[in-house]
Design goal:
The chain is an alpha/beta fold. It contains nine helices and twelve strands. It has one domain: P-loop containing nucleotide triphosphate hydrolases (Rossmann fold), CATH 3.40.50. The protein has a six-stranded mixed sheet, with helices on both faces. Strands 2-1-4-5 form a four-stranded antiparallel sheet, with helices on one face. Strands 11-12 form a two-stranded antiparallel sheet. Strand 9 and strand 10 form a beta hairpin. Belongs to the ABC transporter superfamily.
Length: 269
């Protein structure tokens, strides 16, 4: 299987603190890969390094066969889109205007949006259920609605590689599932490479093809869902005993803490 992104001996640090330690990994093309692990393990840093937003202390990130350093910013924006975990809300900006920013890597420097660009913006809004919100000011939306607007902008960029840092942030469970299903459907339809950071292990197992488990700035386990979702791996990564069950409908592996709540030890009243 060809790789969409290849990371070789990548080390990254902030102000003298090492966050990633000689990471080696490959992201398979045209598949969905989840980055999972405890808080502070380096998931977001690795994602940002894959997008070329963080300089490496050492090592190389390749997009296809090309080092990121060999790509102009415009060319990179045509091939890779990133949705960050936290995004500032520009004052006075409408939802449509935000999503249209995703098209600028594909337009000429002097020209505006074409009819095709407008259609892609509207389709991206419809994909996340915001087609009736196009004229609204972004700052007037709820946190979950804003998150869906940012996702629409990433979709409008229409790249073969899409990186998403916790795309379900601010969303209730209904909209979490809706967005994950929409993104997986888009990935299948467009045959793109999708990499997302997810904290919910069940969601990662249900909607991803591959999982990378990280701890302490290193990748400890990587592979398909069945091989990675293992109690021994989870103990090593999360330092907690877990049980592996099966979802009664999908059959996807479920990892649940083995520890029983003290409340469950109390006799019913």
């Amino acid at each position: 299987m060809a790789s969409a992104i290849r990371v070789e001996q990548l080390s990254v640090g902030y102000v003298g603190r090492r966050v990633l330690h000689q990471v080696d990994t490959q992201i398979e093309a045209n598949r969905i890969t989840a980055l999972c692990g405890p808080n502070g393990c380096g998931k977001s840093t690795l994602l940002r390094a894959m997008a070329g937003l963080i300089p490496a202390d050492s090592g190389t990130v390749y997009l296809g066969d090309t080092p990121l350093s060999g790509l102009a910013r415009r060319e990179m924006a045509q091939r890779l889109a990133l949705l960050a975990q936290f995004n500032e809300v520009p004052a006075g900006l409408s939802v449509y205007e935000l999503v249209s920013f995703g098209r600028y890597a594909h337009t000429s420097w002097l020209g505006g949006l074409s009819g095709e660009d407008h259609d892609i913006v509207l389709d991206s809004l419809a994909r996340v259920g915001l087609q009736d919100y196009a004229a609204r000011e972004l700052s007037a939306l709820s946190g979950g609605e804003r998150q869906r607007a940012w996702i629409a902008m990433a979709l409008a960029q229409d790249c073969p590689v899409l990186l998403l840092d916790e795309p379900t942030t601010w969303l209730d469970i209904h909209h979490q599932i809706e967005v994950l299903e929409q993104l997986r459907s888009i990935q299948r339809e467009r045959n793109i490479t999708l990499v997302w950071v997810l904290h919910d292990l069940h969601q990662a197992a249900s909607y991803s093809d591959h999982i990378l488990l990280m701890r302490g700035g290193r990748i400890l386990h990587t592979g398909d869902v069945e091989s990675v979702m293992d109690p021994t791996h989870m103990k090593q990564v999360y330092e907690i005993d877990m049980l592996r069950l099966r979802h009664p409908q999908s059959g996807a592996p479920l990892m649940i803490p083995a520890h029983q709540s003290p409340l469950l030890d109390s006799p019913p009243r």
